[in-house]
Amino acid sequence: MSIKTNLPGDSQAPAGVIYAVCGYGWWALVTPLYFHAIREVPALEQLSWRVVSGIPTLLFFLWMLGRLGELKRALLDRRVLGMLGISSLLIGANWFIFLWAVMTDRLSHASLGYYLSPLVSVLLGRLVLGERLRGVQWFAIAVAAVGVGLMAMAMDGLPWIALAISGSFAFYGLVRKQVNAAPAPGLAVEMILLAPLMVAFMVIVQVQEGMAALGPDAFITTLLVLGGVQTMVPLIFFAAGAKRLQLSTLGILQYISPTGQLILAVLVLGESFDTGRLVAFACIWAAVGLYSGDALLHSRRRAFDLAIPGET
Questions:
Q1: Rounded Cα–Cα distance for residues 243 and 3 (Å)
Q2: How far apart are CA 23 and CA 19, in angstroms?
Q3: How many C-beta neighbours within 10 Å does residue 183 have?
Q4: Among the listed residues 108, 127, 44, the one whose alpha carbon sits nearest the alpha carbon of residue 265
Q5: What distance in Å separates the CA atoms of residue 20 and residue 236, rounded to the nearest whole number?
Q6: Which of 107, 104, 102, 123 is nearest to 167 (CA)?
Q7: Nearest to residue 176, comparing CAs of 83, 89, 59?
Q8: CA-CA distance, 202 to 254, in Å (whole number)?
Q9: DSSP states of 164-190
Q10: What is the pTM (predicted TM-score) of this model?
């Protein structure tokens, strides 16, 4: 007798890692640099083009995969539509806060938010869904809370950008967890629901100061029109990676994004990173390490428990 510990999809894991690294690497470097390149464009216009130009890109992607039927079913389901209406506001807020952080030279704050987000999600799972937390998870959350307190002391105030990003993304995940819609069709519905608001923002910007996309700078116009493509590329990589990897592996790889953002913020964009902030981040990194290590160990134990015995 032997115990088979291979999990379904193991042969696809190397490709999954490559896809996931490409997706998270894009979010770490390309997305911040993209928003930095258009930082002079009003924030509402940036967000609006990201959504409006993203809709045809996403619809084309769904058409290529033959999944437009899933989009139609989601649009016709009132409960799904209502929940996705809530999640669309949350992801819209998350996107806006992130680009605002880049525009105001606070990418490192956004990085902190994405480090905190999984820990906030774990806490929400306990408080809202009644999920049980292991002792190490509670300890990781406590260490992260200490890190936030130290960051507040280093900044002479609460790191509201980090808290807003982590909170909005964690609540977004909480809502999407309870919606019967796949990620890509669900995102398409969210962007469709946001579209009227985004068009209204465009009109406001045009009336007040004129949209940059209609200005003389062809480079800025091109970047704004490609905002949807910029949004979709890492999502496609992520989706491809997620199909081939265990959730625990994907969860550890996700820290590529905030790590890359922090390095970019400090070494390339010249943001401040004094001793106080270093100590605060060290607490967050310790919390992330505890959480990730516990998640990986628990996943391996569960895989072993579920292993199927077979004949040699």
A1: 25
A2: 6
A3: 12
A4: 108
A5: 10
A6: 123
A7: 83
A8: 33
A9: HHHHHHHHHHHHHHTSSS-HHHHHHHH
A10: 0.83
Instruction: Name residues whose C-beta falls within 8 Å of residue 140's C-beta, 6 or more positions apart in sequence.
Output: 119, 122, 287, 288, 290, 291, 294
Domain boundaries, the chain: 2-310
Residue pLDDT tens, the chain, 312 long: 334 444 444 556 788 888 889 999 999 999 999 999 999 998 899 999 999 999 998 899 899 889 999 999 999 999 999 999 999 999 999 999 999 999 999 999 999 999 888 888 888 888 887 878 788 888 888 888 888 888 888 877 778 999 999 999 889 988 988 888 888 888 899 999 999 999 999 999 999 988 998 889 999 999 999 998 898 888 888 877 877 776 667 777 888 889 999 999 999 999 888 888 888 889 888 888 888 787 777 766 655 454 444 443
8 Å CB contact between 207 and 28: no
Identity at 162, one-letter amino acid code:
A
